[in-house]
Amino acid sequence: MAKKKGKKRNAAKKRSDNVDPSKVPDSSIHAVEQPSSSIDVPEDDQLSSAACALHISERDTAGKKKRNVAHREVPSPCVPVVERPSSSINVSEDDELSSEACALQFTERKAAVKKKRNVKQPKVPGPCDATVEQSSGSINIPESDETCALPISEEVTKETDPLETVSSESESEAPLDLDLPRKPTEPGKLGRLIKLISNCFPLEFRGINVYHYDVEIISIGSNYTTEDNNGASLNGGKEKKYRCLNTKLNREVFRTMQRDHVDFRNTVFDGKKNLYSVLSLGIKNLEEYEISLDSEVPGDVNDPRGPRKDLFMVKINPVEKETGDNIISLEPLHALFKGKVASVPREAFMVLETVLRHTPCLRYVPVGRCFYYPPNENYTLGGGKEIWFGYHQSVLLGQKQAMVNLDISSTAFYENISVIDYVAQFLNKSVQGLHYISSLTESDIDNLSIDLSNVRVQVTHLHYPREYVIKEVSPKSANDITFTTTKNSKTRETNIKNYFYQEYGIRLQFPHLPCLLVKANKEVCLPFEVCTIVEKQHCNRELNGRQLAEMIKVTAIPPRERYRETLKIYEHSDYRNDQFLRAFDLRVQPDPLKVVGRIINAPQVQYSNEIVRPYNGSWNMKNIKFFSGTKINTWTLLSFADPTDCPKGLLHKFAESLCYYANSQGTELDRCSHIEIANAELQNVYIQFREMKDQFNAELIFVVLPLEADRSRHKSSQSRQKREVNSSILYSEIKKVAETNIGLITQCIKGKNVIEKYNNASFISNLCLKLNAKMGGINNTLMPGEISEFIKDSILIVGADVNHSRDENSIAAVVGSMDENYYRYAVSVSFQKNEKKKKKTCEVIRDMKNMIHKILLEFQKVRKSLPQKIIVYRDGVSEGQFQDVQNREIKWITEACLSIKRDYKPKITFIVVQKGHHRKFLPENQTQGAGPMRNCPPGTAVDSVVTHPLNYDFYLYSHLGLKGTSKCCYYTVLHDDNGYGFDALEKLSYYLCHIYIRCTKSISVPSPIQYAHLAAYRARRHLASHLKDLGEKGLLKGKDWKSKMDSVSIEEFNKAITVKDDMKDTMYFT
């Protein structure tokens, strides 16, 4: 162990950089996930968008005040530098922490507290001075669609990028003091009772006082940069450059401080700014501590200064409260549960959260509110990714007590493999197979850039470990990237391949492949084969279909098994012996809370010749006709599949089957007017559609998409490869041309489905559901008496969602019901650029006023009057965003109403629906469970015990999970002029889940939310095709394409996602 010294400084009178308590950020924890409680496999094949480069935020790297010590960047052996403008990228905010825990077996870095000396290191000559500081980018992943065909409840965790996870850790999911409607005094009574077991464990605590301190940790160089061999100062009067740290390193520095300073032994730290202690630390003003850790960059073994040490300054300052001291009392939380206070004591809540989180953050790899460890077995997902297992833990406020929510969790991590292996897996080839390709396609490079952006790699060609963060994949190969290098005053031009041989004696095996462009002050190019992906990196990318299917296969478990695993988590956490819980006198009880729920009866669903009552969330349409079938006179079939895979004779058989089943279900579908097979080239889309519209007066075009490469009978053919490359872009082009250029309804079908299911009754019947609704028919409706209280008044039901993308823009969609049965919806979409670029996406719908205005005008046009009431279902909002949404969106809705008529003030109810949570319920009596997994039956509502002590909220199961554990939706009412009780909103929400046009099953969210999701996604397809067009015109090409995109007006983007007038009265997006 390194020699231990310590020195603290009282800097209150000497420093002007004391922390302002009013500016200390809150410390709540936020985890953003992508649950897949039900995975939708839409039959119109909504494919992924074309790749857009990811851009990373820079964070402020300066300390509060610079010290008079210069910071010298550590020189390293040169890697090839391509002369391009340099970009300074700051330190990553990964919330991933090494630990001494046996599960992770991290190697603890030796450390000591060393007395500070104002010294400077002279410039050390080296071949290059480029310094790399790591950063992580913001990745936004749209939630998976709701399925009808495969209602699976096991969530597949998706988090935000590490930077955002950490930065939002202290602000996102803490209870906020909002002016929300209070919980109805009358509990819900509708339905039959069912006893449930939750995964929430009672948390007991005393009303003690806790001392709150602000922490700032900054890097101040190393022992090699602050003193000469004799210990003399080398600062030369120059100021030192301070560097902010990531959360992982913050925790490591603070853990060293806890080990070496007895006063800090029982304190807890949130990894960012907040330190809590049950005892006063005796710090009255700002105090500073210097901490040293063994450096990963080795020093000279003969250097008298000894091993290289990284030095850090830890500044601690008491956070002054309104009372004049730095004390937080936990007693107001007890008062909250007794009903004596009307607001949540947020700081007290955050003390509980930080104490519970402190130990697992030291033991495991934290991702948001989940903690993961490497798997004991190989659970590979392919494509260089693997499954890690862990658990979720968070503190919640119940009606009468605090609770700890525990749940098993799984997510994808990058495999610790060489980049060349990763590339081979990503391309579905062997490493040897990479020798036989001449180069990567532009599409492959784009997709690899997206998948590897912000991933950390370690180089293997240096004699010491050095990490870089990937920016993108180069468009050129190691053979083709040339640059000028100077050695011994001689300048010469070389390429990457020759450079690595001349400098490192390495003969590249794959010089024909591209390189990694990494983040550094100068552009550094690294061949794939000299890089290894650093271990313990969470993959925050969207998994492809096969990876997602494998994830579900491995992780989906029945609810009772999940419950047993949850109890194991409790035992493994060993709360009773946790040093920090004992210090703060917190106790997590071993028995999870039990609650009485209610099972609401399913509604009666009406068809033209039958009324059916769903059983366990589903019903059969055999011998049943649509409530209102549509008539289609002329339609055509266009195939982009290879004719050897999908010949014309097979297309004729499919068309005949489609006519038969459509007519049997009540859609009058005449014989196909024309069948055409075309090359899968983008320019053919408009030509073919225009011809079919003009020559055949087609009302509808069925489009057969190319087969995937591994399903084609002609995998090696050049035309087959070309079709595969263009498949995702082809889908976007089809939808853009049909809906924004010409005005045509299209229905896309996968080529493999035509081949395998051309006469499959179930498949074609499901296709007819979409067909009838898109063309203006009504598949089914609720019996009028089922929701009479919502029919007697003129009510507009709104669904709203925001779709985020990797290129830092968002698309909002708002849908509004046009009929009294809440079946048909009008839609308005809007493009919006994010306010905090490179950090966070904006969840607030900025154009809400204009969008609601359009919906109201359409409602007035169809219904001949304006609605008396508006009920909004809002998706995609976390608790940390409630304030923003409540303050702005509800106000804009009111303004939209007033913009139509000055005295028009309908009553508004605004409900947020969340799927990204970990609360689970299990029927206490297994015989009361539904389906093969014995999940909670559809219609199960919970509005007591585990709900918020103040806010109007409830949980609702609306669908049946056939595989894994069902996941309920969490509803929070942000505004309620209508004064609806639990029974009214629970019943309406549940019933709206039964009139989703794509299936004869109830889905997990109200249908208007799912329609808003689909509409936003469809607009994303329109935009992707538009961006491709701009790129082909040279408007968005080159390394500055992002700045060029920023210069494109929002109006132009909105024009690109606006459909033709012919489409506006249809549900084209379904």
Automatic annotation (TrEMBL):
<protein>
    <submittedName>
        <fullName>Protein argonaute-2</fullName>
    </submittedName>
</protein>
<dbReference type="InterPro" id="IPR003100">
    <property type="entry name" value="PAZ_dom"/>
</dbReference>
<dbReference type="InterPro" id="IPR032473">
    <property type="entry name" value="Argonaute_Mid_dom"/>
</dbReference>
<feature type="compositionally biased region" description="Basic residues">
    <location>
        <begin position="1"/>
        <end position="13"/>
    </location>
</feature>
<dbReference type="InterPro" id="IPR036397">
    <property type="entry name" value="RNaseH_sf"/>
</dbReference>
<feature type="region of interest" description="Disordered">
    <location>
        <begin position="117"/>
        <end position="183"/>
    </location>
</feature>
<dbReference type="GO" id="GO:0034587">
    <property type="term" value="P:piRNA processing"/>
</dbReference>
<dbReference type="InterPro" id="IPR014811">
    <property type="entry name" value="ArgoL1"/>
</dbReference>
<feature type="domain" description="Piwi">
    <location>
        <begin position="700"/>
        <end position="1024"/>
    </location>
</feature>
<dbReference type="InterPro" id="IPR045246">
    <property type="entry name" value="Piwi_ago-like"/>
</dbReference>
<dbReference type="Pfam" id="PF16486">
    <property type="entry name" value="ArgoN"/>
</dbReference>
<dbReference type="InterPro" id="IPR012337">
    <property type="entry name" value="RNaseH-like_sf"/>
</dbReference>
<dbReference type="InterPro" id="IPR032474">
    <property type="entry name" value="Argonaute_N"/>
</dbReference>
<feature type="compositionally biased region" description="Polar residues">
    <location>
        <begin position="132"/>
        <end position="141"/>
    </location>
</feature>
<comment type="similarity">
    <text>Belongs to the argonaute family.</text>
</comment>
<dbReference type="Pfam" id="PF08699">
    <property type="entry name" value="ArgoL1"/>
</dbReference>
<dbReference type="InterPro" id="IPR003165">
    <property type="entry name" value="Piwi"/>
</dbReference>
<dbReference type="Pfam" id="PF02171">
    <property type="entry name" value="Piwi"/>
</dbReference>
<feature type="region of interest" description="Disordered">
    <location>
        <begin position="1"/>
        <end position="46"/>
    </location>
</feature>
<feature type="domain" description="PAZ">
    <location>
        <begin position="418"/>
        <end position="535"/>
    </location>
</feature>
<dbReference type="Pfam" id="PF02170">
    <property type="entry name" value="PAZ"/>
</dbReference>
<dbReference type="InterPro" id="IPR036085">
    <property type="entry name" value="PAZ_dom_sf"/>
</dbReference>
<dbReference type="GO" id="GO:0003723">
    <property type="term" value="F:RNA binding"/>
</dbReference>
<dbReference type="Pfam" id="PF16487">
    <property type="entry name" value="ArgoMid"/>
</dbReference>
